[in-house]
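User: I'll paste a sequence; please echo it back and then give the predicted structure.

Assistant: Echoing your sequence first, then the prediction.
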Amino acid sequence: MKTVYFVRHGESVHNAAGRFNELDTPLSERRTKQAEEIAERASALPIELIVASTLKRAQQTATIVAERLGVKSESSKFFVEGLQASRLLGKEVNSSEILEAIKDYHGNFTVAGYRFEDGENFDDLKTRALSALAYLEERGEENILVITHGFFMWIIAAAAVFGNELTAEECQGVIRGLDLMENTGLTVLTHGAPSNKAVGRLPTLWQLKVWNDHAHLG
């Protein structure tokens, strides 16, 4: 059985300031401690490999965790944040411009082919999430820690539960039904676990075991 521990990056400068993250937004100085706390927690897990989003805030988090665990860290574009319209990056999250854009984006998320400006749409996100899960399946390691991002973790969870048949409506339901992961929150997926007796021993692929566990933050 393969176990993948997903961690949202530590708080970024823009998270702290209430702004949309830009591609290379770094961790905030006072919240680098979050990365140290998840590193301490992860030290009790049998992690064999760390895979991190290529974005700076994830890379910085991965460096802290890798140094604490003494394991190899690799980078993958599969796990970057869902790409938003470029004109919104760095803007205040509560500004009228952002609020209107979010309303437009989520209001049309299930419309076939809909895309908000130059950002990723549902089809892009689904394809990337399924590719990310396939990449993890193919890795030889059985215990992997992935440093990724809040919005994209919703897509990963939806793709894990529904697989190739995932629809935009199902994905939106997951987004509405699960809290946004806290910075350094922990989510656990397993692959190849024994069949669930409660559903007549149906074969299982990915299973969502834990969502947004942030007990290490106090």
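The chain has a mean pLDDT of 90. DSSP finds seven helices and six strands in the chain.
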